[in-house]
Design brief:
There is one protein chain. The chain has a three-stranded antiparallel β-sheet. Strands 5-4-6 form a three-stranded mixed β-sheet, with no helix packed on it. It is of the alpha+beta class. 43% of the residues lie in helices and 15% in strands. It has six helices and six strands; from the N terminus they run ααβααββββαβα. The protein starts with 10 loop residues before the first helix and ends in a 5-residue tail after the last helix. It is globular and about 45 Å long. It has helices at 11-25, 32-43, 50-59, 66-78, 120-132, 149-152, and strands at 47-48, 82-85, 93-96, 104-108, 114-117, 143-146.
Length: 157
């Protein structure tokens, strides 16, 4: 897992309530398994894979299979609870949406290090590009690929 800010224990009930409301408004039942998965999502720091989420579930004493986790991820993505990120990697990575400000990613193509960043100028340029081509944006996903300082240090790069 790639670490970033984690909500405090006080934030988790409010976040889970917001996610449950998103499920209900999409006409999806909040099952006990989905509730457990949402709890684990709040425990995961930063970016996580399905395997990380299943391991977190096991660590906190919930018996939820990896297949069940995989089955629920697209649904949780559809209702806006999580978003798929780091799309250039070989496996799907996700991050929690609630309580996590919008950001973009720098990804090292050698070691896989992910750095989250935000620059308002990028958002402004995206809005201008969309308007120029007649698009109404509903979101965006930006990943910049390159070599991190640690991987460049031995290259002279």
């Amino acid at each position: 897992m790639v670490k970033s800010g984690r909500p405090t224990a006080r934030d988790i009930p409010a976040g889970k309530a917001a996610l449950a409301a998103s499920l209900r408004s999409a006409g999806v039942r909040l099952t006990s398994v989905r509730d457990k998965i949402m709890s684990a999502i709040f425990i995961c720091d930063g970016h996580f894979r399905a395997e990380d989420l299943a391991a977190t579930l096991r660590r906190i004493g919930h018996r939820v299979s990896l297949v069940t986790v995989y089955r629920n991820l697209p649904l949780l993505e559809r209702v806006g609870a999580i978003r798929r990120t780091c799309l250039t990697r070989d496996v799907a990575w996700y991050e929690r949406v609630w309580g996590h400000e919008h950001h973009d990613h720098l990804i090292c193509v050698r070691c896989g290090k992910v750095v989250e960043f935000e620059y308002r100028a990028i958002d402004v340029l995206q809005d201008l590009a969309a308007a120029e081509h007649g698009f109404r944006l509903t979101g965006h996903h930006l990943e910049l690929l390159g070599f991190c300082p640690e991987c460049r240090s031995g290259d002279g790069g």
